[in-house]
Amino acid sequence: MIQKLIKKIKEKDAPVVVGLDPTLSLIPDVIKEKAFAKYGETLEGAAAAVLEFNKEIVDAIYDIVPAIKPQIAMYEQFGVPGVQAFYDTVKYCQQKGLIVIGDVKRGDIGSTSAAYAAAHLGSIKIGDSKWEPFAEDFATVNPYLGSDGVRPFIDVCKANNKGIFILVKTSNPSSNEFQDRLIDGRPLYEWVGEKVAEWGEGALNGDYSLVGAVVGATYPEMGKVLRNIMPKAYILVPGYGAQGGKGADLVHFFNKDGLGAIVNSSRGIIGAWQQEKYTHFGEKNYAHAARAAVIDMIEDIRNALLQKTGIND
Known about the structure:
eight-stranded parallel β-barrel, two-stranded antiparallel sheet
């Protein structure tokens, strides 16, 4: 799957992923009114609005991006109907030829991680039948419980040609409370990065591993260090746009081949219609605003990479 992701990044010349993290405040009234008229102001109505919102955005951008990243919490907040909308979103994106990164941040003791891995990346046998519950292409994984919590995901990835992105240095402001703590003179995120590199050595697929890492765009200097620690790990880079990251911050996340990283923007894309730069599209054309924001993001990252030589110098 990592090679499939790389191929799509090359084909579209766009190392970007759009996060489908919908909230009701980001969804235009016209969509909500239609859904609520059919289902009422209920969980079902909210989930229906989310799914319609997602579909229109995907229709507007699937030809220019390689991947989509739905954040499962934004769906779970609407209960069972929301989880169904998550599933339907995954399937719709895959039908459009997009790679789906399930932002689920799972990780627990071995047996529980095995169940999470089966649910999101693998399959489960029921009688004589085998089922793939969610069937994302990649999933995000929390490594806090150590190897016991990560290895079941790696095993499932190797068996099913899937991939994971392990949280190493996240983009949120309070990530320093734990991730930057010094252990034997080095920050914790460096130790986690070394484990990612170690886990990945046993899961190589070409020049890159099925085991990737999450490193926030808001910490470019740390990204430079971690790029060197994890040369064969693809890095998922959140924090572009709404959280303050920009193309010039990201060059050190990439290897000298121009690969090795994929940059995520969520609210900056799906909520573009509410931003001053794109308000001229209007509420009804929110998907066109999203496409314009994606084009601007791709151009920003391309220019930054072109202007910077010796990425890992």
